Amino acid sequence: MSKSIISTDQAPEAIGTYSQAVRVGDSVYLSGQIPLDPATMTLVDADIRAQIHRVFHNLKAVAEAAGGGLGDVVKLNVFLTDLAHFGAVNEVMAEYFHEPYPARAAVGVAALPKGAQVEMDAIMVLPG
After folding, report:
1. pLDDT tens column, 29-45
2. What backbone phi and psi angles, to 5 degrees, belong to 40?
3. How far apart are CA 95 and CA 13, in angstroms?
4. Which long-range contacts does 47-54 make (Cβ < 8 Å, 24+ apart)?
5. How confident is the model at residue 1 (pLDDT cuts 50, 70, 90)?
6. At the topology level of CATH, where does 3-125 sit?
7. Is 110:99 a contact under the CB 8 Å cutoff?
8. How does DSSP classify residue 41?
9. Is 111 a residue whose pLDDT tops 80?
10. Helices (H) and strands (E) in the chain — how many of each?
11. What is the spatial distance between Cα 72 and Cα 68, in angstroms, rounded to a whole number?
12. Cα(33)–Cα(46) distance, rounded to whole angstroms?
């Protein structure tokens, strides 16, 4: 199977040696998104809910550029610098996802790029 690179200016450009997403067949692998505003490439407000919303907006933009949406996500990984924000992730996530929810992991980490409090990556499967 061939792979294709997904890119959109509606999400932050890569800040390293990676693509925003890679499609292989019906699967799309979305790179980690931190709460960067794609227009300014700066971190959004320090409020954790604002950061979580921005991350979901960024993931949604990449998913749509790949021809899908957040409803096509089958696996979501959440990285938090403070696991006390786990509840906020659940509350905000309920605004973007509906049952059946994707499989998910939440991992506490010491630090994230640019001082972000949250990062998420995802795997999406497009309808065949």
Report:
1. 999 999 999 999 999 98
2. -110, -15
3. 25
4. 48/85, 48/88, 48/117, 48/118, 49/88, 49/91, 49/92, 51/116, 51/117, 51/118, 52/85, 52/88, 52/89, 52/92, 52/93, 52/118, 53/92
5. confident
6. 60s Ribosomal Protein L30; Chain: A; (3.30.1330)
7. no
8. T
9. yes
10. 2, 8
11. 6
12. 16
Tens-place pLDDT, residues 10-20: 999 999 999 99
- Give the pTM: 0.97
Distance CA(126)–CA(121), nearest Å, equals 16
Amino acid at 63: A
- Residue 105 makes CB contacts below 8 A (sequence gap 6+) with 76, 77, 78
Dist. CA 48–CA 114, nearest whole Å? 14
